[in-house]
Amino acid sequence: MGRPVDIAHSLGRNLLVITWDDEQRSELPIPYLRGWCPCAGCQGHGVEIRFQPVGDDISATGLYEMGSYALGIRFSDGHDSGIFSWTWLRQLAPESAPGGLKQGSFRGGKFV
Fold first, then answer.
1. What is the pLDDT of residues 42-61, one digit of tens each?
2. What are the helix (H) ranges across 25-68?
3. CB 48 within 8 A of CB 106
4. Which of 6, 11, 58, 79 has most Cβ atoms within 10 angstroms of its Cβ?
5. Which domains does the chain have, with CATH numbers?
């Protein structure tokens, strides 16, 4: 899936901007990422991850690398327990199939 070579937080646009090692550039809205938080508190302990819409006013108040495989995000609503792996962020990217911002759920390795 690739690894990021640059991660930037665009405060004005409320986006996470990732440049990948294949030179692809992803722009991920912060509220969109909050809606796709993969943590057990948001998703339970099942095998399906569901998009849970949040308000557009959600922002990131902190970003921190977790080892060499993931990003932690502290959101303005206080939530910070999601682990956003590089693979997960790449799957959520608008340029990854299916194209655009994803809705619905993720199960069995694909969005449904």
1. 999 999 999 999 999 999 99
2. 30-35, 40-43
3. yes
4. 58
5. 4-96 (3.30.2020.30)
Count of C-beta atoms within a 10 Å radius of residue 20? 19
| pLDDT confidence bin for 1, thresholds 50/70/90 | low
pLDDT per position as a tens digit, 60-72:
999 999 999 999 9
Structure tokens at 69: 């495989």
- Per-residue pLDDT, 112: 92
Q: Which helix (H) or strand (E) holds 65?
A: strand 60-66
Q: State whether the Cα torsion 12-13-14-16 is positive or negative.
A: negative
For 89, the token pair is 């962020």
Task: Mention every residue, 6+ apart, whose C-beta is less than 8 A from residue 1.
Answer: 86, 87, 90, 91
Q: How far is CA 51 from the centre of its chain?
A: 11
